[in-house]
Each structure stands twice: as structure tokens, then as C-alpha cells.
């Protein structure tokens, strides 16, 4: 396969694959330098629930605090006058938010106050990573059984690409990485795999039905497979993104990280199902010959019988 023999669509897919490689390298670089901004679910800290009589929005509550105190709190809304305040252990020792609310004349009552130890956070992180690892192993086994190895490799690489880019974005922007974001990564795994399997199934089907005397170039077959599934993929991704956008805009700060991760994951997952899951097998030498069935001598003898 040479560059000059590729169609415009095939060249675009190869260039997309190169772009993905650059983005993955950049994401790994950012992760190695900045790391992730782990939330209190993993680091531990104090969680305080309060009820107010007048303040109804997070913006209004933060306006009652100094910029320094507000920056050290993670505030989520649990009801019309109900708020949950999270702060790191080292911050809590010198916390001033209660005194500042009193000075501003905010009438509030503390419903509960609890401490999440770092050991609990470590256990949550470990269990979350184990769940992620178990899901990846199960998917690899499934792909190995379902697909020819080149298509399986393409799907797995696309999956790892999607997760890496989402983590890289969270590291770059300093977004909080908590349990809801970890849950979104599991959802991204399923969604990305679904797109890759649909394209891979179509590629396999088209390769199998090629006549022996009319072999078509693999890159043309892959383009046809993508074209026949593209409308379905775009409609599914579009409707899902619309739902996630509503969560992002309307569900509040508690689910912002979840929505951002899922939104980005679906976008890059749709991209990778075309530029990685379908293109990498082509570069690895996938062809219709990989699906040619070889008959043993006994079967041939039966077929030759009158």
C-alpha cells in the first residue's frame, strides 16, 4: 500500500491517525508533568452540609466569602437552601468560611460534618482502578474472540486513545478528578467500544463477501464500511451529546466533571472509531485473505463426493 494509491478518504483517515498519535503523546506529557487534580473522594477531607434561610445559589454563597476562602472550598447544591461544602484536611485546620458567613449575617445551620480519611480515599481509588482494569481485560478477551486480531488491536488502541485524551484534558485544565469522573471513564469504554465494533463488523462482513476473483483494495472496503455506518454513528453520538450537554448545563457542579469527561470521550470516541479502529488494521495488513476459510482434507473429500 503506497500513499499515491490511497483515495482522499483513506488519506484523511491516515492523517487523522497521525493527529491522534500527536495528541496521545501530548496528553501523556501533560499527565507526567502535572498529574491529575484528585478530588476529596481520593485525597480525603472534611464534608459539611449546611442549610441557609436566604441563600439559594452557589454563586450567592461564594459572594458571601472572600476569594481565598471560596477558592479552598468545593461547593455543591443539594437542595434549594441545602449546600455541601468540601475542603481538604490541611485547609480545614485554618478554615475561615464559617466566621465569614457569620460576619456577613448569613443565617445557616450545620446539618452534618464528617471527615473522609485518606485511607478511605486510597481504597476508593484502588477499587476504581481495579474496576477499570477488569473492564479493559474483559473487553480484550471479547475482542480476541469476536474479531480477527488486526481489528481487535485497532479497537483496543482506539479505546486507550480515548481514555488517554480525556485524562490529558483533565490534567491540562486542572479539573477535579473524582469518583463521578472515574464512572464516566467506564461509560466511555463502553461507548467507544460500541462504535469500533459497529465499524469492525461491517468491515469484516464486506471482506467476507468479496469474490475470490474480484479482490478489492482493503482501504476501499474500509471506506465503504465507514460510509455505510457513518449516519448511524453520527445520529447516535449527536443525540447522546445533546443529553450530556443538558446534564453539563443544568445538573449543577456535582456532575460537571462527569459531563465534561463523557462529552469529550464520546467526541474522541467517534473520531477514533474511524481514524484508529478502522485505519490501524489497514496499516497492519488486513485483507480479505484473512477471512478465507481453509478446508481440511476430510471436508474436501466430502465436497468432492458425487
Using brief descriptors, characterize the structure shown.
306 residues; alpha+beta; Multidrug efflux transporter AcrB transmembrane fold; Alpha-Beta Plaits; 2 domains; four-stranded antiparallel beta sheet; two-stranded parallel ribbon; 13 helices; 66% helix; elongated
Question: What report would you give on this structure?
Answer:
The structure is a single chain. This protein has a four-stranded antiparallel beta sheet with strand order 3-4-2-5. The protein folds into two domains: 6-37 and 120-291, Multidrug efflux transporter AcrB transmembrane domain (Multidrug efflux transporter AcrB transmembrane fold, Up-down Bundle), CATH 1.20.1640; 45-116, Alpha-Beta Plaits. The protein is elongated. The protein has 306 residues and is α+β, with helices and mostly antiparallel strands. A hairpin with a 4-residue loop joins strand 3 and strand 4 (82-87). Helix 9 (179-208) packs parallel to helix 11. The longest helix has 33 residues, at 218-250. The model has no long low-confidence stretch (mean pLDDT 80). The chain has helices at 8-34, 40-43, 58-63, 67-71, 89-92, 97-103, 118-146, 149-173, 179-208, 218-250, 256-275, 279-283, 297-304, and strands at 37-38, 45-52, 74-77, 82-87, 108-116, 176-177.
The strands making up the biggest β-sheet line up spatially as 3-4-2-5
Separation, N- and C-terminal Cα atoms = 43 Å
> What is the structural class?
alpha+beta
Predict the CATH topology of the largest domain. Answer: Multidrug efflux transporter AcrB transmembrane fold
Number of strands: 6
Shape field: elongated
Q: Work out the radius of gyration.
A: 26 Å
Give the count of helical stretches: 13
CATH architecture of the largest domain: Up-down Bundle
What is the helix/strand order?
HEHEHHEEHHEHHEHHHHH
Give the name of the CATH superfamily of the largest domain: Multidrug efflux transporter AcrB transmembrane domain
What is the overall pLDDT average? 80
Helix content: 55-70%
Major sheet: 4 strands, antiparallel
Number of domains as seen in the coordinates: 2
The proportion of residues in beta strands is 5-15%
CATH class of the largest domain: Mainly Alpha
Low-confidence stretches: none
